[in-house]
Design brief:
With about 300 residues, the protein is an alpha/beta fold. The protein contains 10 helices and 13 strands. About 35% of the residues lie in helices and about 20% in strands. The structure holds NADP nicotinamide-adenine-dinucleotide phosphate.
Amino acid sequence: MKVFMTGGTGFVGTTLTRNLVEQGHQVTVLTRKIPVNDTLPHGVSLLEGDPTRRGEWQRRVPQHDIIVNLAGASIFMRWDKKGKAVIRESRVSTTTNLIEALSDGMKNETTFISTSAVGYYGFHGDETLEEDSPPGDDFLASVTREWEAAAIQAEAFGARVLVCRLGIVLGRNGGALGEMLPLFQKGLGSPLGSGNQWFSWIHEMDLVGIYLFLIAKKDLSGPINCTAPEPVRNNDLTQALGKALGKRTFMPSVPGFVIKLIKGEFGSVLLEGQRVLPKKLLDAGFHFRFSRIDEALNDLLG
Ligand SMILES: NC(=O)c1ccc[n+]([C@@H]2O[C@H](COP(=O)([O-])OP(=O)(O)OC[C@H]3O[C@@H](n4cnc5c(N)ncnc54)[C@H](OP(=O)(O)O)[C@@H]3O)[C@@H](O)[C@H]2O)c1
């Protein structure tokens, strides 16, 4: 099938694209800047354009069967007024522009797979969260609410819309592990704050499996929690990461106020997690290869 992807040059998009072409799909990746000398696998083509702005690129969208919308500026930045505007615009405007493009002669049976995050739920302590749990009201929750609301508009044109609420993606080439590894490899890994906060994660290959499953399973739609069935507390993540790397994690935990001082409002994301369960995927019969954090980390780091 023909797939149109935003954010396809990123951490998740690169792995997903590689696996989609291996499955025989043709992928068009929209990027703000086509790199010089980029070698692309057979079946991938790059299209230059800024998804946050209307443009010529929009004319190409309706020619595709599947739209995967992954674009979004990294949230690992200082959340000042400008930073927040970039985080929001790179997600909401991108989605709105894709919908506008689809309204112009969409194919029958188009599947629109947009992205969201477990941050949708806000912070809930030990409460377990499923797809029908209510949204939170902090900054990330409000951005994801708008992001999801924009995506759902595609239903008005007859598209099947899926909104993947991604947990923290654990993969080989970047993402959260890329941020954590340098300290842990030096034996300086430690829990953050109380260490009791929940961490809802997903192995990158299970995430790829979920996208392929969602493409094939035409009766699924709406929000989908893309998280492993066994979320862990920050303390358990710290221990499992130390063990997988063969490094001791005996450093005292980093006090919450220090994290808040360094990271500002973004610090809350590190100090207060959410315990999210992939109810719809489990009910639909999706099989996770990596349900346990130790198995996932051993696979990625072993
Ligand atoms: N990784 C995770 O753990 C995680 C967890 C929850 C949700 N998510 C969401 O999943 C999506 C993909 O995550 P990722 O980790 O693969 O992100 P990533 O590596 O940072 O890649 C994001 C992509 O978005 C595009 N982008 C970046 N800044 C942009 C901007 N200001 N305006 C428009 N496009 C911009 C870039 O494409 P070009 O430079 O080619 O234009 C980039 O390849 C993101 O929306 C993210 O919020 C990720």
